[in-house]
Design goal:
- By secondary structure, the chain is an all-alpha fold.
- The chain is 51% helix and 1% strand.
- The chain has twelve helices and two strands; from the N terminus they run H-H-E-H-H-E-H-H-H-H-H-H-H-H.
- It has helices spanning 2-5, 17-31, 37-47, 51-65, 71-78, 83-92, 98-110, 115-134, 145-154, 160-177, 183-197, 203-210; strands at residues 34-35, 68-69.
- Strands 1-2 form a two-stranded parallel ribbon.
- Helix 3 (37-47) packs across helix 4 and helix 6 (83-92) runs antiparallel to helix 7 (98-110).
- The chain is extended.
Length: 288
């Protein structure tokens, strides 16, 4: 407590991306370096809230590219992906274009781009679309206006819970990619899983259909309707003499048959066998 009472605590928080971009532009103008606004934004986005990291990246760009720095230079030196490519990848997910999305991943991986940064930018686009659906006054999170309008039109039919589920899927993918050696494989699996999740019937859809506010896909098998049998008519008029039913005469009662009494058991008759001795057979005479 004695040491803590004599110390001053300073909480370091991430700096806003636009603030970093403005500061980089200010430094470039004082140093005689031409820095495009798109390049300043790309550096500020890659710095992830750190002003010192952004200034270090600007020094590297001046060393590699000279006094003329464009967005393509930033993307080539640090392996970042352009905002147009990120917006195009994000657009292919709600439209369920799996092959086109995988082609973008393959192109970026072949070009040596940082796939972790690409996934982070994609999550940022989905997050911006999710916030825009909840809050109509939310901004476009630094995405160019023409790309932002295309993204909002594409995701207009995707409900909020679906977008939230997409963000969860990519967040799990980001956690797996952090320590994986093959980042491309996990990113491809995440994109495929995200697109296939849009076709799943969720419990909220079932509840909405049961409440009468929606409908579930019906089966194409026709249902056979069976008609209930018509009830039989009951005669209401009394039967006439001719139609009166005949009176059944009672049958005579049959006397019960008496079972015959069994005869007493008699022993079997004795059989006498006359045993007489057989006649002796003469032995044959010897032959000389």
């Amino acid at each position: 407590p004695t040491i803590s009472s004599r110390c001053q605590r300073v909480d370091v928080r991430p700096i806003d991306t636009q603030t970093i971009a403005d500061q980089l532009t200010f430094i470039s103008n004082n140093e005689g370096v031409t820095l495009e606004p798109a390049a300043a934004w790309a550096v500020a986005k890659g710095a992830d809230g750190g002003m010192r990291d952004a200034q270090s990246m600007l020094d590297q760009l001046v060393a590699f590219c000279g006094t003329q720095i464009k967005e393509s230079n930033v993307l080539d030196v640090f392996g970042f992906t352009s905002r147009e490519t990120v917006a195009q990848l994000t657009q292919f997910i709600p439209t369920k274009k799996t092959s086109e999305a995988l082609n973008i991943l393959n192109e970026q991986s072949t070009a040596g781009k940082e796939l972790g940064q690409l996934l982070d930018d994609t999550i940022g686009c989905l997050r911006a679309l999710l916030v825009a659906k909840v809050d109509t006054n939310a901004g476009n999170d630094g995405i160019p206006q023409n790309l932002w309008e295309t993204l909002t039109k594409t995701s207009a039919t995707v409900p909020v819970d679906r977008l939230l589920h997409l963000v969860d899927i990519f967040a799990d993918t980001e956690a797996r990619m952090k320590w994986a050696s093959n980042k491309k494989l996990h990113l491809e699996i995440g994109v495929i899983k995200a697109i296939q999740s849009l076709n799943d019937v969720r419990i909220s859809d079932v509840i909405t259909a049961l409440a009468g506010a929606g409908s579930l896909p019906q089966s194409s098998t026709p249902t056979v309707q069976t008609q209930a049998p018509a009830p039989e008519k009951v005669a209401t008029t009394a039967p006439t003499a001719e139609e009166s039913p005949a009176v059944a005469t009672p049958e005579p009662q049959k006397t019960p048959e008496v079972a015959p009494t069994p005869e007493p058991h008699q022993p079997p008759a004795e059989i006498k066998i006359d045993l007489q001795p057989e006649p002796a057979v003469p032995s044959p005479e010897p032959v000389c």
